[in-house]
Structure formats: structure tokens, C-alpha cells
């Protein structure tokens, strides 16, 4: 039994004629007849007496028609509920965002999203990628702003922009005076990473052509989780860093920030939700607010190569040991 079959029954009750009912339902008369026959065979009851003119419901058919009217009303109510839910711009929304993006993106777009959705209360949480994916799947978060693709089939990704990576060099670096940065053999041992930011580190290792950070030699191990701390370590001549472009939006001295030559390594930033998330209009508003707040340098077209993290041997090994 289907909703469409019940609609055919109501059309027949209204028109009391197969040809007219088929026209109302915008189907062929044979098609409507077959669907009615299939329904009657399924339930084992004749709904209409075909020997009478005009077509007349049987005694049990009248009861089925009345119940069909109720079912279709409820189906319409469900449809209206879903439409309203998709278009709802009210209530509380829990948003997670990766820590390597949050300090730079949130200040840029927060006022725009407040203006676009004044009745929505946002609760924003910073976390690493693994925690964000887990919280989305368990319902602790509604939306996550993070690097993709995740490779998680239970999550739906809505890409917003591609953020270029840039080199952050100290004044003594051999390429400090060049216009672009190119990886130098000696640099691989000087790359600074972030503690527990496994997806971010995996991207940096990919850019540098390394499989794991064990090949990076240093006298000290830096257990830091902030890009700003990495910058200070670079300024202290303790290595170099590869950082996302938004992290230099507020930099006053850009002389030691070097772009890569095209194709530029980038990370894809997306709105990520569970496969049961329904507020589509809210996602559109968030996407618009974020995109409109980005610097023009990120919105322009350029040749790039997207850096993945979820298939990195380093990421898989690190996550397994972390769990």
C-alpha cells in the first residue's frame, strides 16, 4: 500500500469515473486501474463496485476511503513539518570548529551570521578533527566547520572554500627574500607541528613529502596546539611552519610569509553535518555568511592541489594510538 494508491482511491471517490480520475491524477487510465487492482488484491477487499454507474464505493470501501483521507491529511502535515524544519531559523545550534581555523574565521563571519539568523543561538566549540566527527555522529554537535573530505560515510559535507597553505619563515631562512616558497631539503627537519592536531599535521607532512614526523629531527619536542605559538617559535629561529592563509589575516609584518607557486596546496573547508540533519536553510545562511566574509585572495580563482588528511598513514596510525 502506497500514498499514491490512496490518492488514486480518493480521486476515484471524488470523480466516480476512471477516465476523469486518471486525468485529475495526471496518469493513464490503465495505469490507475492497475494500481487500484493491486491495492485491492493486497488488502483482499473490493473498494469500488465497478458494476454500478457511476462508480460506487462498497460498504468496506467507504471505511477505507475515510481512513485514507485521514492518512493523507497526516502525510501532508508531515510534509509541512519537514518543510518548516528545513526552513527554520530559530532555536539553538551547536557548532564545532577545528582549532587551526577557529581563531581566524569566527571573528570574520560571526557578525554576518548574527544578522542573517537573529533568532538562532549558536554554541561554538573548538576541537580537533577526530572529536568533531565523533560529536557529529553522537549528536553532541549539529554542524562542524572543518577540513574535508573526512571519508566518513555517515557525514554530509558542504564545501565552502579552499584555503591556501603558506610558508612562515624566519629571517635567516635561505628563501626569506624570495617571492615564493619552495621546499628545501634542509627544511624537512625543521618543520614545526601541532600536538594532537593529527589531520593538520598529516596535511603538512603531505606538502613536505614526509610520511611521518619521526624523520623530523630537533633538539626539542614542542608540545603546542596553537598556530600563534608556532609563529613565535619561528620568530625565535627554532624552525619554520606551514600555516593556513587565514591565520595571517591580522599579521602586520608579512615579509616572512611566502606563498607557494601554483598549483598551491590548499585545504578544503566545509560545513559538515550528520546524515539526519534537516536545517538546510540554516546551512545556506552559514555558507553565505562565511563566504562573504573571506578575504578576496581566497575567493579568487587559482590553480591548486587539495591536500587530503584522512588517508594519510600518519593520521591513521596517530588516531589509532590516540584512541
TrEMBL record:
Domain HTH lysR-type residue range list: 1-58
Keywords: Activator, DNA-binding, Transcription, Transcription regulation
UniProt cross-references to Gene3D superfamilies, sorted A to Z: Periplasmic binding protein-like II (3.40.190.10), Winged helix-like DNA-binding domain superfamily/Winged helix DNA-binding domain (1.10.10.10)
CDD domains: PBP2_OxyR (cd08411)
Any one GO MF annotation of this record: DNA binding
Gene Ontology, cellular component aspect: protein-DNA complex
InterPro entries: LysR_HTH_N (IPR000847), LysR_subst-bd (IPR005119), WH-like_DNA-bd_sf (IPR036388), WH_DNA-bd_sf (IPR036390)
Protein origin, superkingdom: Bacteria
Pfam families, per database record: HTH_1 (PF00126), LysR_substrate (PF03466)
Family from the record: Belongs to the LysR transcriptional regulatory family.
Protein known as: LysR substrate-binding domain-containing protein
Organism from which the protein derives: Flavobacterium flavipigmentatum
Amino acid at each position: 500500500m502506497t500514498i499514491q494508491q490512496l490518492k488514486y482511491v480518493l480521486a476515484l471517490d471524488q470523480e466516480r469515473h476512471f477516465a476523469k480520475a486518471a486525468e485529475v491524477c495526471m496518469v493513464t487510465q490503465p495505469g490507475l486501474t492497475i494500481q487500484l487492482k493491486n491495492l485491492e488484491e493486497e488488502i483482499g477487499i473490493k473498494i469500488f463496485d465497478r458494476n454500478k454507474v457511476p462508480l460506487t464505493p462498497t460498504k468496506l470501501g467507504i471505511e477505507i476511503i475515510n481512513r485514507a483521507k485521514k492518512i493523507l491529511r497526516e502525510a501532508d502535515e508531515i510534509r509541512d513539518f519537514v518543510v518548516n524544519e528545513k526552513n527554520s531559523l530559530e532555536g539553538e545550534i551547536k557548532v564545532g570548529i577545528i582549532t587551526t581555523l577557529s581563531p581566524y574565521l569566527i571573528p570574520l563571519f560571526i557578525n554576518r551570521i548574527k544578522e542573517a539568523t537573529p533568532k538562532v543561538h549558536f554554541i561554538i566549540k573548538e576541537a580537533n578533527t577526530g572529536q568533531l566527527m565523533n560529536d557529529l555522529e553522537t549528536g553532541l554537535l549539529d554542524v562542524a566547520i572543518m577540513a574535508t573530505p573526512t571519508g566518513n560515510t555517515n557525514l554530509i559535507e558542504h564545501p565552502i572554500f579552499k584555503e591556501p597553505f603558506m610558508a612562515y619563515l624566519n629571517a635567516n631562512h635561505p628563501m626569506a627574500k624570495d617571492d615564493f616558497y619552495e621546499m628545501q631539503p634542509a627544511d624537512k627537519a625543521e618543520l614545526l607541528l601541532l600536538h594532537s592536531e593529527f589531520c593538520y599535521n598529516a596535511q603538512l607532512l603531505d606538502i613536505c613529502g614526509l610520511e611521518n614526523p619521526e624523520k623530523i629531527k630537533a633538539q626539542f619536542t614542542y608540545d603546542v596546539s596553537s598556530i600563534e605559538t608556532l609563529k613565535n617559535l619561528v620568530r625565535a629561529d627554532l624552525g619554520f611552519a606551514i600555516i593556513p592563509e587565514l591565520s595571517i589575516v591580522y599579521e602586520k609584518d608579512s615579509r616572512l610569509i611566502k606563498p607557494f607557486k601554483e598549483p598551491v596546496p590548499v585545504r578544503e573547508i566545509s560545513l559538515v553535518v550528520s546524515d539526519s540533519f534537516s536545517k538546510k536553510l540554516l546551512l545556506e545562511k552559514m555558507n553565505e555568511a562565511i563566504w562573504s566574509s573571506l578575504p578576496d585572495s581566497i575567493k579568487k580563482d587559482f590553480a591548486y592541489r587539495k591536500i587530503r588528511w584522512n588517508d594519510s598513514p600518519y593520521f591513521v596510525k596517530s588516531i589509532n594510538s590516540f584512541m
